[in-house]
Design brief:
alpha/beta, binds zinc ion, binds 5'-O-[(R)-(carboxyoxy)(hydroxy)phosphoryl]adenosine, single chain, 11 strands
Length: 359
């Protein structure tokens, strides 16, 4: 079964054809990054307009690269949530029109579930349950995956997403856009011990930690944020450091961008690791599947590889960021269960598909 997957949730206009949920026949990603770079961030209005201009050509290229015609496609899927509403609507409308015109099924797919699906293209032996680490410009989620659509959120960011922190720090320092990839590159030749940025100390209040929930132990200890993260403090500290540089002349080399990048990146990754290792310890799940743009980060990959007894699976770089293959691959799983979406389905900016949530 050949599924066309369309992804337009943010600033990538992407389409792919995937066979039987496993074999990527084509994966076309047209990035709008140069058009948003001047604004140091994605401008929603520009993004949605460019998607409308590009979508038919991107889909045609995906068909051409797969050596297929529209008539060869068995089903079409699009990201329906979460994301920028105007951008999502372009992909969803295009996919619904394509499905209606060809008389084939349409599937509305969740972007975050699709990021968790992406590693399955390369790790065919991957079995549930596992821990998911979803890290992008808009989300930071640590979750337990019991099936492709059965996800329990364990922890999230209480403020900024990790990718957002990378982007904002990069913007302030004028390093470039998008910030994650630029900081990652700069950090390779920087000293990560040059600046000591604070790790967040999250308030413990109210919610029971897992041991108490299971009635095993815990001794009245309450730990609401054992799997949560926070990035606003780190972001502010890194930005304030720039003001200090401006206020006081530095000895030569004292304000090297590489050192700032490496020190910021180190703390950003340590914050994630702390929450993630807590989740590994409490759930006993030692397989971690990472997804989202920040999963491309080389220091995150390096640090996780250092932990013996943990198997961390990262998608290849072209499947880490937003792409249509993950949408088509996940859609196939629904089709295999006989599920499709009605043509009345519309897009939504919010996260929708996490079935259960620990409270
Ligand atoms: O998943 P994605 O492509 O789009 C969203 O759904 O947000 O993620 C984009 C985010 C951006 O914040 C970008 O700066 C970050 O991923 N990113 C990285 C790296 N490459 C992209 N962050 C850290 N290190 C990287 N190498
Ligand atoms: Zn994404």
């Amino acid at each position: 079964m050949k599924v066309l997957g369309i992804e337009t949730s943010c600033d990538e206009c992407a389409a792919a054809v995937v066979e039987d949920g496993r074999t990527i026949l084509s994966n076309v990603i047209a990035t709008q990054i140069p058009f948003h770079a001047a604004y140091n961030g994605v401008v929603p209005e520009i993004a949605s307009r460019m998607h409308t201009e590009w979508i038919d050509r991107v889909v045609q290229e995906a068909l051409d690269k797969a050596s297929l015609k529209a008539a060869d496609i068995d089903a079409v899927a699009a990201t329906a949530h979460p994301g920028l509403l105007g951008s999502l609507l372009v992909g969803v409308s295009f996919a619904k029109a394509f499905a209606w015109a060809r008389g084939i099924p349409f599937l509305a797919v969740d972007h975050m579930l699709a990021h968790l699906y992406a590693p399955r293209f390369v790790y065919a032996d991957l079995e549930y349950p596992f821990l998911g680490l979803l890290v992008s410009g808009g989300h930071t989620i640590i979750c337990r995956a019991d099936n492709f659509d059965d996800i329990t959120v364990l922890g999230t960011t209480i403020d900024d997403a990790v990718g957002e922190a990378f982007d904002k720090v990069s913007k302030h320092y004028g390093f470039g856009y998008p910030g994650g990839a630029v900081i990652d590159k700069l950090a390779k030749s920087g000293n990560m011990e040059a600046f000591h940025f604070p790790m967040p100390r999250l308030q413990h209040k109210g919610r029971l930690c897992k041991t108490e929930r299971n009635g095993k132990s815990g001794g009245g200890q309450k730990d609401e944020h054992r799997y949560d993260v926070s990035y606003s403090g780190l972001k502010t500290a890194a930005v304030n450091q720039l003001d200090l540089f401006r206020a006081a002349p530095q000895p030569e080399g004292g304000d090297k961008p590489e050192d700032i990048a490496a020190s910021f990146q180190k703390t950003a990754v340590e914050i994630l690791l702390r929450a993630l290792l807590n989740a590994v310890e409490d759930t006993g799940l030692a397989t971690i599947v990472a997804g989202g743009g920040v999963a491309a980060n080389s220091y995150l990959r390096e640090r996780l590889a250092q932990h013996r007894g943990i198997r961390c699976l990262f998608p290849p770089l072209d499947l880490c960021g937003d792409n249509g293959a993950m949408i088509a691959g996940l859609a196939y799983q629904y089709l295999a269960r006989g599920e499709t979406s009605p043509l009345t389905t519309t897009a939504s900016a919010r996260v929708k598909s996490f079935k259960r949530r620990l409270t």
